[in-house]
Amino acid sequence: MASPKHGSSEVATVTERARVHDRRPVGWSLVLLFAGYPVWWLLGITLPLTVVVVAMLALELKRMPRIRFPRYGTLWGLFMAWVLIGVLVVQVDAPYAVAGWNANRYLTWALRLFWYVAATVVLVHLGNVTDRVARARLFVSFGWMFVWIVIGGYLGALAPSVDFPSVLEFLLPHRLATNAFVMSLVHPNLAEQMEFAGVTRPSAPFPYANVWGLNFACFLPFFVVGWGRATGWKRRITPLVLVASVVPVVMSLNRGLWIGLGVATVVVVIRAAMAGNARLVAVLGLGVTLLAVVIALSPLHAIVTDRLSSPNSNAGRSELASRGFASTLESPVVGFGTTRDVQGSLSSIAGGSTPDCPRCGAPSFGTQGQVFLTTFAQGYVGAAFYLGFLGLVLVRSVRRRGATVTMALGVVAMHGATLFVYSADNLAILPIFAATGILWRAADGERVGTPALLELARARPRWLAAAVAGGGLAGLVVFVATPHQAAISTPVLVDSAATASGAPPVTLDTIARLVTDRSVVAAVARASHDAPDEVGAHLRVTADPNTRVLVLTYSAYDRRDARAGSQAAAQSLLALWQQQLTADESARQHELAANLDGISDALAVVGNGRAALDGHQWGPVGHSAGRQLLALQQQLVTRWTAVDAMLRTTTADAPSSGAVVGRPGEIIRPLPWAQRVGEGCALGLLAFLAPALRPHRRPHRPPNRPPNRRPTSTISASRGMEVFR
After folding, report:
1. Are residues 440 and 582 in the same domain?
2. Which of 220, 400, 535, 683 sits at a 20 to 30 Å CA gap from 196?
3. Residues 101 and 139 both lie in one domain
């Protein structure tokens, strides 16, 4: 125990820190960020300024006399650990994704890491702000952001083609400023150039319409509570802003936004009914009814109906989701660190973006919703930590009352409703985790504690480092001890336009499906010494984007077998395609010959008819019939000449099916060991934390020892677990 002198100095230090903190405005950096957001957007410095704001919030947390943490903060800490481990696997090849090294993946990983760090800081900050004036100031600043989002929606709807560079874009080097990833961060645009039903979707002040929709949904509840409770002109214009926001909401054609608003409305109605607030229930019911009537009786009905159905969009999302989940099965523990570009497109194996059609390529894996992002980037385990933390906070706080809790529940409910539509790796994660901080504080009250992961890291940092390093070393040993397959690829230029004369060209996808033919499978099995039923699992067919080059890759534990299998696949595929071309050409010849015989017979009949007319005097009728027969004879002669020319052309050899355009080469997978090392580090962390996560009994106190009523957080030295007393 500390001496009284030491205890007195500690209390004095805490008291002094509290006084210093009370003299400083709380959350002023958030006010600066959101109130002046249009200026930062035009300057192109929204992301750098957000980094500064998060750092300022972290400093405010450091100055607080004591810091509260969520009761289930260990789950969030584990998710953050999974994000950090993801840097090891960002260059690991993922199935169905473009293979090879890509330095931009480190940038996307770092950006998402920042947003998760920002979410953590805002979560803890809002959970520790107890002063009502400070909270009201923060809610008003969030409301300013909503106002700018509504104004940006109008600008995008009225002037969708307006495009201009930011100030930062002028200052950046040309090579960096023209990078697609960097441009999405620093280049202002008013609308996303993607049209549905003839309407361009507004996105200002964000690069994408879906990001606009998620931010609209998440900042809306803060605007309603913050500005609705304010005094003066803010409170008076709140209803006007809400009514005006309906127009950009509809014009944005954001199905996820509509669904999220509907879910939030249901949450508010249920909680208002439970609280006995009949007036609020009636107002919301009347508003929803009027909105439904306006949509049903206006041209908006067709737009909303078509957008909600959108069979092409729904099918594309389903296909991308199924491929993403199937790809994650190859790395279910830690995922692949960040998003990946899809190999080909959703419609063609050789599809891809072009300057004239930038959206012809498929969206990247992990960009179609937060569930897909966390699953693909952090694996099924990391996604479970993310969803488990939010779910536990939501369940524990759902019975708490108050307008602030209802607002926070609405934000988290909208995030939950759009998990499969919107990714929260943008500014929207700040209001989402601000609402989460409000919820866990409402549920836990004055409970003070530290997540077990953080406590153990402080108490036993060497043990933590040893567990993580030992797990990574064990993963490396497993990688070395496990035999690995070599992948050999053979590029083949296939002439997909070389079909039978007069027949339409086939697609490259149709030719690629020939690898499943029995003859191809048998040839590959003989060359690679694999069983025929194993060929399909080892043979992969891809294509260079926007070309007619198929790449046949075969994997085997022996490089010679892999090379032989790849070559056999290429040669047998070309041979099979050549056979089909020859068969089609022969069938075409028979068809043309039969057509030529039919035309000849018709010419003979027409000639006999003209001869009969020439031998008799039929008057005017005969002259008219003769002219008709002559015209028909000329048409038949023209047709016969054309068919005869086509038949002479088909007597030549069938067109070539294509050729191998390169030597078989081994695919060098970047960092093939990193996946096992990352999994080992993750499992080592879990093993280190396991004692703290076990259920434990309350320690027995001696009968003569008075209980310590001061709230503390300690670690049991014998079991290494967190104990709250």
Report:
1. no
2. 220
3. yes
pLDDT at position 149 over 80 = yes
User: Any alpha helices (H) in 310-460, and if so which ranges?
Assistant: 311-328, 370-397, 403-417, 429-444, 452-459
Q: Same structural domain for residues 652 and 689?
A: no
Residue 21 within any structural domain of the chain: no
Give the pair of three-digit tokens for residue 125. Answer: 């900050």
Round to whole Å and give the CA distance between 514 and 338: 34
What is the band of 321 on the pLDDT scale with cuts at 50, 70, 90? confident
Q: Is residue 325 exposed (0-12), middle (13-18) or buried (19+ Cβ within 10 Å)?
A: middle
The token pair that represents 656 in the structure block = 């070539």
Q: Per-residue pLDDT tens for 610-663?
A: 677 665 555 555 667 767 777 777 887 888 787 777 767 665 555 677 788 878
Give the pLDDT confidence of 86-98 residue by residue, as tens digits: 999 999 999 888 8
Q: Are 413 and 553 within one domain? A: no
Helices (H), 129-232: 132-158, 167-171, 174-177, 180-186, 209-228
The residues near 321 (Cβ < 8 Å, ≥ 6 apart) are: 368, 372, 420
DSSP 17-84: HHHHHHTSPTTHHHHHHHHTHHHHHHHT-HHHHHHHHHHHHHHHHHHSSS----TTHHHHHHHHHHHH
User: Phi and psi dihedrals of 129, rounded to 5?
Assistant: -80, 115
- 108-147 residues labelled b (16+ CB within 10 A) or e (exposed): bbeebbebbbbbbbbbbbbbbbeeeeebebbbbbbbbbbb
Contact yes or no for 592/539 (Cβ under 8 A): no
Query: Which CATH number do you get for residue 519?
Result: 3.30.1890
Domain encompassing residue 681: 446-456+466-484+673-695+709-725
Query: Which helix (H) or strand (E) segment is 659 a member of?
Result: strand 658-660
**Strand 199-202 to 713-715 pairing:** unpaired
Q: Residues 228-237: what's their mean pLDDT?
A: 87
Of all helices (H) and strands (E), which one includes residue 665? strand 665-666
3-state class (DSSP) for residue 472: helix
pLDDT, one tens digit per residue, over 24-42 is 566 788 889 999 999 999 9
Q: What is the mean pLDDT of residues 324-340?
A: 92
Torsion of CA 460, 465, 471, 473, to 10 degrees: -150
Residues 602 and 685 in one domain: no
- The answer to whether residue 510 scores a pLDDT higher than 80 is yes
> How many distinct structural domains can be found in the chain?
3
What is the DSSP track for 511-579? HHGGGGSHHHHHHHHHHHT--HHHHHHHEEEEE-TTSSEEEEEEEESSHHHHHHHHHHHHHHHHHHHHH
- Pair 265, 325 in one domain: yes
CA–CA separation, 414 vs 432, rounded Å?
Answer: 9
Mean pLDDT of the chain: 81
Task: Tell which wins on pLDDT, 131 or 516.
Answer: 516
pTM, entire model: 0.83
Cβ-contact 173, 204 below 8 angstroms: no
- Dmax over CA atoms of the chain, in Å, equals 141
| Buried residues in 438-447 as b, exposed as e (16+ CB within 10 A) | bbbbbbbeee
